[in-house]
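In the design runs reported in the main text, the only information available to the sequence generator was the tokenized backbone. The following block is the verbatim input for one such run; it is reproduced so that readers can re-run the procedure and compare outputs position by position.
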């Protein structure tokens, strides 16, 4: 039989029959990471604040005793950050996250049914802090940070804005249940919600290497190398200072405003306005991070915060207060995004869980000390003003230090990029 020796012509429809596999988008992990940050709510000050008065009544506690319980639970709970990051890097993101969410759900459920000793309550609050505020926060930040490449600032801006919106919605629903029904029912609903989050994690969270379609590990500095780098401490100390100010100011801001003649109604309006500015700041910082260096963005945020703290004792009119609300909100938005985004850009993603765990531990520790520092300062001086001036000076110095800081060259990575041609200068 004659053999057809004519050249083979590829079918124009071949790619349609066998399309090339597409790399999954990392945006799914970014969105799920925001949901995971929402799941930290029962272990955070804002979440526990929803049920504080009910806990005091049910357990017959005075405020000082509960404040001490909360302080030591937060300080000890911060230690959960380091093993959480280590386990994520060693055992994988999905399994570790599920292993945090389900125990947190169990703790929340037990708390909803418990009415025993103060010692057991301390253990439950400690586990809520350790699993929620510390370990699950590390998992959430790492889920977003390990899944993205260039353009991480923009992705973290979206991530920050999304979980801020989710937080607001959750506060409305959980707060409504607490107010109109019972805090125990609200905490049962939260426990059920955490189980749902664990199911979503099992179904939709993708390991970063699977997202990249790569078998080898991404590159990056080890935790020891990061801790020896001055840039780690510039950003860690700066964000810890911010956490200290934010926690102390957030707990006593109504009293701070009252000291300067502003009513509780004005305080509530301030909270709403500054929250809107913070949301805008998160998106703006994400966009600017594609074009400007993160040290300069951090410096601008800290200098803005320092100026606001120094000006606060001099505020006398509503116009001045709303300007301060805008400055404070923008600083909150900027620092939030930078804290989430900088570690992967500076140190790569091979050991990102450990590095973010160490940074998170520093900020949690500072946020625990903040309210105590504000309270002791007011007790000693009879006013918050001296501390505000001192903190303004320290934050300003930290901002100037950040201005002259430079990030190391970004390690190469196999993680898919969210850069998409926006341009980048860092």
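Verbatim output:
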């Amino acid at each position: 039989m004659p053999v057809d020796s004519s050249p083979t012509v590829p079918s124009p429809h071949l790619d349609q029959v066998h399309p090339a596999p597409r790399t999954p988008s990392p945006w799914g992990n970014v969105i799920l990471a925001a949901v995971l940050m929402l799941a930290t709510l029962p272990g955070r000050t804002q979440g526990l604040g929803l049920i504080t008065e009910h806990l005091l009544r049910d357990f017959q506690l005075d405020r000082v005793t509960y404040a001490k319980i909360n302080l030591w639970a937060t300080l000890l709970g911060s230690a959960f950050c380091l093993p959480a990051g280590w386990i994520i890097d060693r055992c994988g993101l999905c399994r570790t996250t599920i292993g945090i969410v389900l125990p947190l759900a169990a703790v929340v459920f037990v708390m909803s049914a418990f009415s025993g000793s103060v010692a057991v309550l301390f253990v439950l609050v400690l586990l809520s802090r350790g699993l929620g505020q510390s370990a699950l926060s590390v998992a959430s930040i790492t889920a977003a940070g390990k899944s993205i490449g260039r353009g991480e600032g923009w992705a973290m801006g979206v991530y920050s804005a999304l979980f801020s919106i989710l937080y607001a919605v959750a506060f409305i629903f959980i707060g409504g249940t607490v107010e109109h029904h019972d805090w125990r029912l609200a905490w049962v609903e939260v426990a059920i919600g955490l189980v749902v989050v664990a199911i979503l994690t099992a179904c939709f969270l993708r390991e970063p290497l699977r997202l990249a379609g790569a078998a080898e590990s991404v590159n990056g500095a080890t935790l020891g190398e990061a801790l020896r780098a001055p840039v780690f401490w510039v950003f860690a100390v700066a964000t810890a200072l911010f956490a200290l100010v934010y926690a102390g100011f957030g707990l006593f801001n109504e009293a701070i405003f009252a000291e300067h003649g502003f009513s509780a109604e004005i305080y509530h309006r301030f909270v709403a306005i500054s929250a809107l500015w913070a949301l805008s700041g998160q998106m703006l910082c994400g966009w600017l991070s594609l074009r400007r260096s993160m040290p300069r963005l951090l410096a601008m945020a800290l200098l803005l915060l320092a100026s606001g703290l120094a000006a606060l004792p001099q505020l006398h009119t509503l116009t001045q207060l709303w300007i301060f609300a805008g400055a404070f909100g923008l600083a909150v938005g900027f620092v939030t995004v930078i804290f989430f985004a900088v570690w992967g850009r500076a140190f790569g993603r091979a050991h990102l869980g450990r590095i973010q765990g160490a940074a998170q531990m520093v900020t949690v520790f500072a946020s625990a000390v903040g309210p105590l520092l504000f309270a002791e300062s007011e007790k000693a001086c009879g006013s918050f003003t001296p501390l505000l001036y001192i903190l303004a000076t320290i934050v300003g110095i930290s901002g100037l230090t950040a201005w002259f800081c430079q990030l190391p060259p970004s390690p190469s990575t196999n993680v898919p990029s969210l850069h998409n041609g926006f341009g980048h200068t860092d």
